Amino acid sequence: MRIIGKYKLKYFWDIHPESKLSLLRWQAIASQSEWTNFLELRKTFNSADYYKGKVIFDIAGNHYRLIAVVNFIEGWININQVLTHGEYDKNKWKEKYD
Fold this sequence. Notes:
Blueprint: E1 2-4, H1 6-15, H2 20-32, H3 38-44, E2 49-51, E3 54-59, E4 64-71, E5 76-84, H4 85-89
Helix pairs in contact: 1-2
């Protein structure tokens, strides 16, 4: 999968340096994957969720959340947001998609 918006990962780990290794690991796995549907993606990231056209990835044992659009047909992932678990739990991110 081609990853769009990688700069958002760097921006996040610059603020939260402890997230860097986990985000780089996610990036490496996702970029080498060739999913054709959400069920295949869940075989790789079994805790991934789907919400209104977005895939939500748990990062670093649920410490962070990565929200992205995944286009299985064209083979790309567009990173929308990376959040701490606390930011995610406030549910303000949902306002962007409702």
